[in-house]
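Ligand-bound model needed. zinc ion.
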Amino acid sequence: MRRTAYLPVLAAVMTAAAALVLAQVSTKESQAAMTPAQALQRLKDGNARFVAGQPKARDWNAKVIATATGQYPYAAVVSCIDSRAPGEIVMDQGIGDMFSLRSAGNVVDTDIFGGLEFATKVAGAKLVVVLGHTECGAVKGAIDGVKMGNLTALLAKIQSAVRDSGPGSSKDPAYVTKVTEKNVRDSIDEIKARSSILRELSASGQVGIVGGMYDVATGKITFLAD
Ligand SMILES: [Zn+2]
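Prediction:
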């Protein structure tokens, strides 16, 4: 009787092992072997597939099974809450590939720093991306000085990017993009300034930190040069 009780367990383990191979999920080994530059290339390739309308065919159920006992994502992406900019979809990533941290206007705070420290130092991700996007409502709100509930404090975090970008209007898409790019760069500076863990991982080359801009009109991401 006892012996038969093992069979379903054994079958489940075999299934999980087989799924791991078939599902092509990130593994401890593949994550450890990956460099920050390779992780960035993966995201670039994924966005190119998305733009071309040729996302990878994925067995989502197999990926669920294969990742049930652990995760080894290679990237952590901080992006806006905007419904038009879902990171996993626009970079054609699967389950277990990337951490996703989202806040309006992709502003960073202690909670985001903590999440990024977990993603990199504990869980081994090799790349941090701060992803802004065109037509960002939060950035427009900051430009217009909107004050409303808890949004007031959130938008205040974008004000330095507005000031540094000079005068302009929220109705000018080019100006909104300019402020958003500055906000992305400010967020990266803040991550390095306020997280000694990320600063050290970045300085030693173990983790890359890059900015990017997602275009809601084309689906294309342009990664920002340092
Ligand atoms: Zn936004």
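Residues 2-223 form a domain with the Beta-carbonic Anhydrase; Chain A fold (CATH 3.40.1050.10).
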